[in-house]
Specification:
Oligomer: single chain
Distance between the termini: 27 Å
Number of domains: 1
CATH architecture: 2-Layer Sandwich
CATH class: Alpha Beta
Low-confidence stretches: none
Helix content: 40-55%
CATH superfamily: Nucleoid-associated protein YbaB-like domain
Mean pLDDT: 85
Number of helices: 3
Shape: rod-shaped
CATH topology: Ybab, Chain: A
Order of helices and strands: HEEEHH
Strand order of the largest sheet: 1-2-3
Length: 115
């Protein structure tokens, strides 16, 4: 590889890194929602996989057979909603990053450099 080509490559990587930093910053204010248990649990995550809101329907607190809260059920529903939300958030991030990297797939070539 000639020095001119190497210089072009480094400039392109630097530009792409700046573009990806902008995308990362923008993902802080992009949100996805996920629900579980027939909408008894709702979570909101931003595009950076940060949980920003958790809502529990009051019906959830009388879900046990004795009319008392079923702690294990509540925990399972929260985990399910967060897992679904994380997948949606990761998909959003991948989609936005692909706009910057195109088909190049540099994220795999330089682990940690682009995310």
């Amino acid at each position: 590889m000639s020095q001119g080509n190497l210089g072009d490559l480094l400039r392109n990587v630097t530009r792409m890194r700046k573009d990806m930093d902008k995308v990362q910053e923008g993902l802080k204010s992009r949100y996805v929602e996920a629900r579980s248990g027939g909408d008894l649990v709702e979570v909101t995550l931003n595009g950076r996989q940060e949980l920003v809101k958790l809502s529990l329907n009051p019906k959830l607190f009388s879900s046990g057979s004795d009319g008392k809260p079923d702690g294990a059920l509540i925990e399972d529903l929260i985990v399910a909603a967060v897992a679904q939300g994380m997948e949606k958030s990761r998909a959003l991030m991948r989609q936005e990053m692909e706009k910057v990297t195109g088909d190049v797939g540099l994220g795999g070539m330089f682990p940690g450099l682009f995310g």
